[in-house]
Structures are given as C-alpha cells and as structure tokens.
Amino acid sequence: MKEEQKIRSLTKAELNLMNILWDKGQATVNDIMEALPEPKPAYTTVLTVMQVLTKKQVLRFEKQGKANVYIPLLTRETYLDNFMDETRDSLFRGSAKSFLSFFAKHERISKDELEEILKEMNN
C-alpha cells in the first residue's frame, strides 16, 4: 500500500476524530460529538473536519435518513505504519537503528523490555 497510495499526515484535530471513528468503526457527527471530551468543539467544526477527511479520502460516508454515517477508509494500523515510516525517513534519514535507539533512550526502555520486543519481532 505504501507504494500505491501516499497517505497524508493528519492534523491533531483530524487524528482526534479518526481515533473515535477507529474505535467505533463508524459514526455520525452526533456520535462523535458525544465521544469528545469537554470542552467540545462546535458541531459545525466537527462537520467541517469530517468533510476535509472525506476530501482527503481518509473516510467515506453513507446517507442514513438525514444523517451521514462516516466510515474510515484506512485502518489505524495502516495510518500508523505510514506515519512511522515517514518519521523514520524524514527525521532519522531512513535509519531504523537511529529511530529505534531514539525511542529506547527517550522512553527509558529497560534491557528486559528490549529483549521482550526482540522476541516478539522474531515471532
């Protein structure tokens, strides 16, 4: 998929709404509004972001009565894969070693945790 379609990075607002959609599977703007923490943005703000995400082809909608039901066109994992690849390539000059070392140091991952991660990677 990486070669076929370049997924554009999402803004913080877009990502917040996408996380709700990924958790729910599909949702109307009202469903999303209910899931948002206080202080909630205006309904029209959420609607505008949903329209932008539709134009970006990150989600689609189906009419159900008077409401649009929004459905993600990519999974959280696909977005995360693309985001992490882009981060590695742009900030770490494509070096997986530098990328992983950064997280190991900054997240204070213990040697035991690193060994567990390596075991999981080999499975």
Instruction: Give the overall shape.
Output: elongated
Rg, alpha carbons: 18 Å
Q: How big a fraction of the residues is strand?
A: 5-15%
Enumerate how many helices there are, as a single number.
6
Descriptive account of the structure:
Helix content is 59%, strand content 10%. The protein has six helices and two strands; from the N terminus they run αααββααα. The chain has helices spanning 12-24, 29-35, 43-55, 76-91, 96-106, 111-122; strands spanning 59-64, 67-72. A hairpin with a 2-residue loop joins β1 (59-64) and β2 (67-72). α2 crosses α3 (43-55). It is elongated and about 55 Å long. The two termini are 23 Å apart. 10% of the residues are buried. The mean pLDDT is 90.
Give a quick precis of the structure:
This protein is mainly alpha-helical. It has 6 helices and 2 strands. The longest helix has 16 residues, at 76-91.
Secondary structure layout:
Elements: H1 12-24, H2 29-35, H3 43-55, E1 59-64, E2 67-72, H4 76-91, H5 96-106, H6 111-122
Antiparallel strand pairs: 1-2
Helix pairs in contact: 2-3
Q: What distinguishing features does this structure have?
A:
single chain, 123 residues, mainly alpha, 6 helices, elongated
